[in-house]
Specification:
Layout (H helix, E strand, L loop, with lengths): L12 E4 L2 E4 L3 E2 L5 H14 L3 E3 L7 H11 L7 E6 L6 H15 L4 E6 L8 H13 L3 E7 L3 H8 L6 E5 L7 H10 L2 E5 L11 H10 L3 H10 L4 E3 L6 H8 L8 H8 L18
Parallel strand pairs: 3-4, 4-5, 5-6, 6-7, 7-8, 8-9, 9-10
Antiparallel strand pairs: 1-2
Helix pairs in contact: 1-2, 1-9, 2-3, 3-4, 7-8
The structure holds NADP nicotinamide-adenine-dinucleotide phosphate (NAP).
Amino acid sequence: MQGKPVSTTRPISKTIQGAPVPALGFGTWPLKGSECREAVVDALGLGYRHIDTARMYNNEWEVGQGLKDSGIPREEIFLTTKLWSTELEGPKVKGYLEESLQKLQTAYVDLLLIHWPNPKVLVAETLAAMMHLREEGKVRQIGVSNFPPDLLEEALRHAPVFCNQVEYHPFLSQQRLAEICRERDVLLTAYSPIAHGAVMQEPLLLEIARKYGKSPVQVTLRWLLQQEKVAAIPKAASQVNRQNNLNIFDFTLTQEEMTLIFGLARNQRLINPAWGPKWE
Ligand SMILES: NC(=O)c1ccc[n+]([C@@H]2O[C@H](COP(=O)([O-])OP(=O)(O)OC[C@H]3O[C@@H](n4cnc5c(N)ncnc54)[C@H](OP(=O)(O)O)[C@@H]3O)[C@@H](O)[C@H]2O)c1
């Protein structure tokens, strides 16, 4: 069961290090070409104000075109892009970001992330180059992605990391990371937040969803956003899914329901490439 779309309701914000971030973002991987541009225009029209891309997605131009075509003022949108793990050497970082800005057709990104850690490059070196871009105003915040707790703590020793974007959904606990993020005022952005749709078959989520007249996907997104310092960036090529994912701001899960959903964790990691870090 899906509720009515709330096209005029803006996603709630999370405040990180004093800066607001729309808690529900729109993920653009693996959208490409005109499908990507049209999805971004539509998402912004529906009320999304947080868009996630990466240099590796090969869609920055279309994302930028979508931003422009939407007619939404640039300053209302929180835009994230990411440096690929082979692009982390300090002296090269500026060139890569400038190329991205050109494709995105914007003067700055709100958040620049290291997409995956690369043990061959010191994180301090990359973060120093990213901080320089922040001082120049080309990047508002800097952060990381796919950093396990120990690597996040290492990064935090070198820079004011704003965000760690990691896989997070009811079937994969991120308890330790979430604790560090709460303590250190870091945004934990959940990617693959609905486990590629697998939450739809989960009996507990179906039962809670029935109670609120929502879907298990909506309950899952709500569960994520009710957690302190957590944002989520579901991807939806389908317009109806994009609308439904935004329609989660008119109900509240009880503490008991939150706890029951935490109990679904079964260490199910969907994105685990050979170059990825060692997760505990
Ligand atoms: N930092 C990283 O390394 C990393 C890795 C992976 C992903 N990401 C980011 O996270 C974003 C989301 O992750 P993801 O694409 O892996 O997984 P996801 O958002 O968990 O799942 C996307 C899938 O769920 C479906 N879906 C979306 N809304 C739905 C709804 N309301 N009901 C039923 N099905 C629904 C989509 O279908 P349709 O498309 O057909 O609508 C699509 O097949 C990516 O786009 C990307 O921006 C980052």
